[in-house]
Each structure stands twice: as C-alpha cells, then as structure tokens.
Design goal:
The chain is α/β, with parallel strands linked by helices. It has 8 helices and 8 strands; from the N terminus they run E-H-E-H-E-H-E-H-E-E-H-E-H-E-H-H. It has an 8-stranded parallel beta sheet with strand order 1-8-7-6-5-4-3-2.
Length: 219
C-alpha cells in the first residue's frame, strides 16, 4: 500500500481553522491527525469535543484521533459519536489495554496504541494482533516543533519485524519531528503513516509541502 501523510491539526492556525481544514481537504494528504490533550497525561491542553466536532463537520478525509489523556475509556463512545475513524490511546495511560482496544472496536473505530519514546515495543507483543495501528512518538508528547529522536529508526525496524513475525497487518505511524530530512529513512525502516505538523503548517506553501512529502515517502 502507498505510504500515508497525516497533517497534524495541532500545528494549524486556530484562528483560521476552517481554512486550514479545507487546505488539507484539497491537498494530497490522506488523513487528519488530531491530538487531544488533557493537561494531565501531557503538560499541555489542545482542544476538546466542540472544536473536534467542527473539524469533522468540514473534513472530507479519515479522522485519526490521538488521545493524550488519562483514563481514555471514559470518552471512547463520545469520540465515536463525533466521527473519529481511528482512535489511538497511549499504552502508558491504559490499565487494561486489551479491554480498551476491544471497546474502541466495539464502537466501529480502528484501534491504535501510541508509545512514548521511552516505552519499549516489546510491551505490545501479546496484543499486537489486536492493534490496527501503532503510533511511535518520535518526540516527547505534548508540544509541536520538537527535534526528532534518532532512536526512532531502530524502534520502527524492530516493530516491523514483530508485526511481520506475528502475521499482522498493523500499520506503523510516526508522530513528531517528521520532515523531508527523515521521511524516506522512516519509510525504509517500515513506517506506513507520517504525521507532520510544524513542517507542513510553517511552510510557505502547505499544499506543495504535503505533495512533496507524500512523493518522497512513496518514491
């Protein structure tokens, strides 16, 4: 399958959010990546349900929601009702991960699991067959614009080996510090989905940047 590009709405201009959503619609991006932060699991607060509802109202592509919150089970049904297609929870925030994955799927969404930079991929080996996507954090979660953590390449390679050995079709998503400087190497290591925030939204021509990144990932 072709590699996917998911612009991170966290880096958009919140005063012109509809404009930026429509830009992603027009572009060659594949998904909307939407970070939900609670100020507890990560030291930042992004936006909540009303803003997500408005994004979904205008979006015409897959909604990939990344929950950086404690006790995510409380809100699974709500995010399904708001129109999320993929719901990713953090391994570090789930006491009973398998149960959380089943809950997400019971509401008709794909289930993703995010791992912080310090968290080993080996912790997923007993549930990888139940995970639709693993999101590897290549920066510490909570803020955009951070530098890419180089150890990510090795994690991607080892995770891809685990997925292949288990005969799964789990996607690997990379979130944090993705640019044209590391996109190809990440794909070569086994990444399927590249999340790009600041790199896209701080560029002079966002649609051209997305097109270029997608071409690079699929070259």
């Amino acid at each position: 399958m072709s590699k996917l590009i998911a612009p991170s709405v966290l880096a958009a201009d919140f005063a012109n959010l509809q404009r930026d959503v429509e830009m992603i619609n027009r572009s060659e991006a594949d998904w909307f990546h939407i970070d939900i932060m609670d100020g507890v699991f990560v030291p930042n607060i992004s936006f909540g349900m009303p803003v997500l509802r408005d994004i979904v109202k205008h979006a015409t592509k897959t909604i990939d929601c990344h929950l950086m919150i404690v006790d995510p089970d409380r809100y699974v049904e709500t995010f399904a009702q708001l129109g999320c297609n993929i719901l990713t929870v953090h391994y570090e925030a789930c006491t009973h991960l398998h149960r959380t994955l089943q809950l997400i799927k019971s509401h008709g969404m794909k289930a993703g699991v995010a791992l912080n930079p310090h968290t080993s991929i080996d912790l997923l080996k007993d549930v990888i067959q139940d995970i639709d996507m693993v999101c590897l954090m290549s920066v510490n979660p909570g803020f955009g614009g951070q530098s890419f953590i180089e150890n990510t390449y090795d994690k991607v390679t080892r995770l891809k080996e685990m997925i292949t050995a288990k005969g799964c079709v789990t996607l690997i998503e990379i979130d944090g510090g993705v640019t044209d400087k590391n996109a190809r190497q990440l794909v070569d290591a086994g990444a399927d989905v590249l999340v790009a925030g600041s790199y896209v939204f701080k560029s002079a021509n966002q649609e051209v940047t997305i097109k270029s990144l997608r071409s690079l990932a699929n070259s």
